[in-house]
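#onboarding

Welcome to the new folks! Below is a worked example of what a typical request in this channel looks like: someone posts a single protein sequence, and someone else replies with the predicted structure as tokens. Don't worry about understanding the tokens yet, we'll cover that in week two.

Example request:
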Amino acid sequence: MSLVPLLMTTSAVLPAVLMLAAMLASGWRAAPGREGHPSIGPQRGWQWTARLSGVATVSAALSLVLQLAAVHPAITQSLSLSLSLSLPLPLPLIALTLSGAWVALLVQLLGTVIGVFSSRYLEREQGQARYAAALSGVLAAVHLLLLADHWLLLIGSWAAAGIALQRLLCFYADRPFAQLAAHKKQVADRLADVFLLSAAGLATWEVGSGSLSALHDHLAAAPASPALQASAVCLALGVLLRTAVLPMHGWLIQVMEAPTPVSALLHAGVVNLGGWVLIRFAPLLEAAPVARWLLVGAGLVTALLAGLVMLTRISIKVRLAWSTVAQMGFMVMECGLGLYTLALLHLLGHSLYKAHAFLMASSVVEETRRAELRGSSTPNLLSMVMAPGLAAILITGLTGVTTAVFGAQAWPLWWTALLAMAWAPLLWVSASVPAGAASEHGPGVMHRWLSGAVMVAALSGAALLGHAIPFGVVDAPDPVAGWVAVFGMAVLYVCLVLMQSKTDGLSGWRRRSYAGFYIDEYVTRMTLRLWPTRWTSAAPL
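Example response:
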């Protein structure tokens, strides 16, 4: 037997095993009477957790390298591996995927960093072992989810990640909004489980097996039956409930009451899992147009409304939370459009950005205060009108050069229009910026234009490079849905321009936007009416 298949399988499974061991060890330390013992103090416990997390990160990286070598002959030859012997050993309920390997490395790397940050953030706090156990449990469950090749393992591991995350959200038991957020998330998760189990039941009944590989083989051999199309719709509904899109987004906003590293873990890792699940079930979604349109519609509405709300909020962490809701809308929409490579790039980039933003929240606050002291200014109306066209020219020129030189596939026109409106704000110029050279107020117009153009070109280059990276996914773009998305993005862009240029005339709209259009208030009332819970502290006698 070759060592390569054994090493590939072991390195993929080992992170889940190590994080499970870290969870059990931390849970043992959290037992009554043990946490305060000097021989097993918090710092010693964190050291063991960090060591196991570090080994798990190395193992996840090795798994990714071996899987890349198995599917790309050039890498295989450079590593002196035999392609025919580089297939993983088969294990029940488990399958190795390139997209899963990328996400596993990302989640484990972020989990390791967040764990080290937590050990300092929670210094002298009670319950650190309990916190470490829950953090390790979340990571172990996520790794199982990424390895799952069976409906029940996928649903069970996703539910386990939610249960472990519940312990982190309620770490400060005396904070009522943290309790409320945890309750609302639990309700959304259980509703999602109902839809996911329904999807699993329909697919298993039609295919005759709960294996995801068998489902993909069945879809490749025959068109999707009504049962499988209904399964795809249930899957889409379950993912939407777990991904914090409107209207079930409120818990993600109120989770700011939890410790900052928990917010980083949630926004940078756990909430993004819905996007990966949609990518994993791409063949099923492509066979069910209703499910795809459901994702496009829900994602577009979420991106539109959450993007508007984000612009009106003052709190840095709350603004970041609304930004995550908007980004989840964009990611879901990308999956519905069949742009799976872009969705996976979005997932990886958003995770890294949000982890940095939350862990550096204090620095962001200081930078925002300095910006406020310098004074705010309205963008120039001409720059806002011209920005989408200029961004489209830059994107088209760069993609055209790439297509001519490297033979890359050209982007559809609607895709270019979508990205142009998304990146157009980078080309906005403040009305107070001097037209000539730089002054004491900052750089001039030309400098701002050039810096914005460089950023648009850099993002375009990153998107082009990302499509050259082997992610193991195949895009299936839908042109009709794409132009609908372009129209939605145009509406969002017009709203942004109006909010920037007509600040006095839109005060009523700004108030509604600041309140999140009161969507979460209605959902919260309904949730507490149907599933009541005590989320406030008892009044003193």
